[in-house]
Amino acid sequence: MDLEVKGVAASPRRQTQSFSGRRKPLQQGWTAKSWAIQNPCPPVVPRLDLGSLVDSDDEDDFSYIPFRTAHIHFDPPNPSSALDGVTPCQIPYTQQHLNELEQDIIPEDLPAPTSKYKLKYQQYKTEMKEGYKQYCQRNAEKTKSNIRYQPSPRNKIDNKNAQGEEAVTDDLTTLDRKALLQQRYADNPYHAQQSTRKSNAEIVAAEKKKQSVAEQVMLDHLCRAVISDPEQNLTTEKPEGACVLPDSNLTPLRFRKRTLHETKIKTHSTLTENMLSHKVQFDCRIISRNGRDACRELVGFFFIHDQSLTIYEYRQFGKNRTNVLPFIKKSTYSHQCGRRKGKQYQLGDFYIGANLTFLSSDHLRLPESIKENTLLILRITNIDQVASDDLRTDSVQQEDDTTRQEANDRLVFKAIQDKLKEQLHKRGVRILTAMGKYFQQLDKERNGLLDKADFKQALKVFHLEMSEKDFESSWLILNENGNGRVDYGEFRRAIIGEMNEYRKSFVRKAFMKLDFNKTGSVPIIDIRKCYCAKKHPQVISGHSTEEEIKLSFLDTLKEACSKSDEVSYGEFEDYYEGLSIGVVDDEDFVTILRTPWGI
After folding, report:
1. Where is the EF-hand domain (predicted)?
2. Count: domains in the chain
């Protein structure tokens, strides 16, 4: 049966003839020339000429072994075998062929080594002997020093960190270079359109959150306060024709236990919507190394009519479910530390970066992790600046001595911070992360307090140059109680400084994205999965791979961790705190966080 495709006829007989025609040269006796003539190589594949394989001048002057002395056997293919159309190189060797190759492949007349090869061998031998001699000397010196000096537990901590500082030429400069790789994200600006779209979504979500919290505050203080006001029982006017029962025990239950009051009656504690409208709304966060507490979303209100304040916590469950609960009940409060200790909060105390202090014992409904500390310190991260400016114009506040003293304190710390930041410009990540671990090792009581000698020793261990005058002036400001002990987190923030609240908000966003279970710590495995280095400039240019950039980040982050398999919020914040020192522009720092974490 013949087949015809587009006018070309083909039959099974013609196909058999073509294949039989290919077998004829093999049956007539095979040689290399005849095979090459009958089956020329394609123009793409060059023909291999074994005779032209000679050593170049760049290699050692070994004599060229002629191909004829190798005696490699290639048997012609068997015409009767099934592998008729297979080239000789595709026929596998048998065990007999392999044995013959092992016997004949090594020629007997090997040439003597040249002078150039002998010289290289002598140089290599000398270098190996010198290297081994130096290695033995270093080991002997280490053994003698260990026998001669046995450090105390406190000196062990100092020596460990000092050795890390002395090894700048080895591992630590490598860590610095790896940390600086993260700053390269700023070289490739974040996509403007994508950034604008995300910013708009964040603004809408923030406004929705503020509106829901404000509505809940109004409901709590306009409705529940009137219903539960006990003063209603005293001011309620009794009707003239009302029947008064002589014994209250005989009164029916529905009259004796009244739960609702007459809402038209006004008392001293009754609030109106007009009174509550004169307020300043602000966002704040808890200053804590606990990830669960530091990432709580808190919204506060300061009311002008009675100088009171209240703080609510905004919680979001999933995408659509939210809840607003009181965190600090509405009342008048005073400063619990600093130069204003004992003074009541006023409108001038509320600005971005200000601290609000409360006694945790006064608030029984606080989480247990917060009650462990005597003071609850809140930092204002954002404020309704329009409402604050309007209310400031109405209430004139005079500058007192305390305000001037606080301004002088800030100038003292600013001068110290500028000097230390110059020293930490390119090694901030390594120093800050190591300093956090060093302070935790010294804190045997686990209360966060250290004495004056500990802080001086820390400055020496990490080679941070600070004059005695600057240290004493800063210590007088920080040691306000005079007990000789200061919180090491507060000490580090005072002399080194910290990120502004705009930068720190993105650090919290990145950690909250990783800590989806809200446990306060993130496994290294999850960080490895979420970190994306596709848009790193060195990956785009081809100088590095994604895996190399990811490993460099994980190596530097692990140095900040007390546990090898997880990262806490405090350690995550310390890493980016050190990275922030070398980044001047806020938007560049935000790009460094946005690009790999996708926030």
Report:
1. 430-465, 466-501
2. 3
